[in-house]
Amino acid sequence: MIELEGVPELIDPVMVAAFEGWNDAGDAASTAVGHLDREWKGEVFAALDAEDYYDFQVNRPTVYLDDGARKIVWPTTRLSVVRVGGDTPRDLVLVRGIEPSMRWRSFCNEILGFAHELGVEMVVILGALLGDTPHTRPVPVSGMTSDADLARTMDLEETRYEGPTGIVGILQEACTHAGVPAISLWAAVPHYVSQPPNPKATLALLNRLEDLIGLRIPLGELAEDARAWQLGVDQLAAEDSEVAEYVQSLEEARDTAELPEASGEAIAREFERYLRRREGSPGQSGGGHATETGDSAFLRDSSGGRGRPPRTPRGGPETGQEPDKGPRSEPDDEDDSSDD
Asked: At what angle do helices 199-213 and 28-39 cross, to 10 degrees?
C-alpha cells in the first residue's frame, strides 16, 4: 500500500516522466523534466528503493561532503509534485530517474500505483532518439500512443513499432493495459552531434508538451541556449567541408519530405502557442514560480573524426550498436520518429 503523507489533493493531475539512459539521446528528455521541476519548484514526495531496480556496478552511487560529513546519493527514480497556478490551476506529477537495470514490470507497477493513488488523469513520457535529422531545422517531435481512441482525439500517431524497446515503451504499455491514458513524445536528435546537452531538443519537447497539456511553460534561458548550441554546431560543421556537405544533404532531404506539409496544422499550433504566451503577464510563468535560469551549451563532435559522420541505420536500437553518449530508441518512420 502506497502512503502519501503531506501530498495535498491534486487538481487534474498529469504525470510527466523521463528516464536517463537508452531512451534519452542528448539527455534531452531528462533535462526537460528537470527544467519543469526547477522552474516550478517541485517538491519531492517519494523515491523508489534503489536496491530493487538498479545494478550499482552500472549506475554507481556518488559520495559527497555535507558540513564535513560524508553522504551517499543512490541512483534512483524520484517523484515530485508541482502546482501550476493561473486561471485554471493544474498539478503535475514529475517522474525523473534512470532507466532501471532489472524488474521492469515491478518498476512500472510501482509508478502506476502512485498514479492511481494521486488520481493521475494522463501519463506523458518524454524520450529522445538519434536520427538522420539536420541540426539547422526544427527538431521533429512525434507524439505516440497505443490507444486508438486517444490517437484519434488528440491527433497522435498510433504506435506500430516492433523490436527492442526501453523503459519508455514498457511504461507506456503498462499504462495502456491498466486503463491509464498514456502518450510518449519523442524528439529526434542529430546523430552526428549526440553529445549532451541538447537544449534545442529539450526546448522542442517542452513546446510539444505545452501544446498537449494546455499549460504555459516558463522556458527561462532555453531559447538562448538552443541558439547558442546551433551556432556552435554550425561552426563545427564549417570547419570540415565533408561534414558541411553531409549536413546539406540532410537539409535537402528534410525540406523535400516536409514541403507538402508546410501548411495549416503546424502554423496553427505555433500561432496558438504565441497567443498563449502573449496572454500571460510579462515576466510571469502563467501562475508558476519561474526562475530565469538555464544550462550553458556544451558541444562536442561525437563522430570521432573529421570525415563524413556515419549514417545511423534505420531501425536504431535493433542494430545493437550504441553511440558514445547517445542512447537510442525505436525510430521506424520516414521522419526518424519513434513509435514508443
From this structure: 60
Q: Decide: 126 and 33 in contact? Cβ < 8 Å.
A: yes
The residues facing 44 across adjacent strands are 80
Q: Strand, coil or helix: what is 303?
A: coil
- The pTM of this model reads 0.75
Q: pLDDT digit of tens for each residue in the chain (340 aa)?
A: 466 777 878 999 999 999 999 999 999 999 999 999 999 999 999 999 999 999 999 999 999 999 999 999 999 999 999 988 777 788 999 999 999 999 999 999 999 999 999 999 999 999 999 999 999 999 999 999 998 888 998 889 988 888 999 999 999 999 999 999 999 999 999 999 889 999 999 999 999 999 999 888 999 999 999 999 999 999 988 888 888 889 888 988 888 876 655 545 555 555 565 565 566 544 444 333 333 333 323 233 333 333 333 333 333 333 333 334 444 444 444 444 444 4
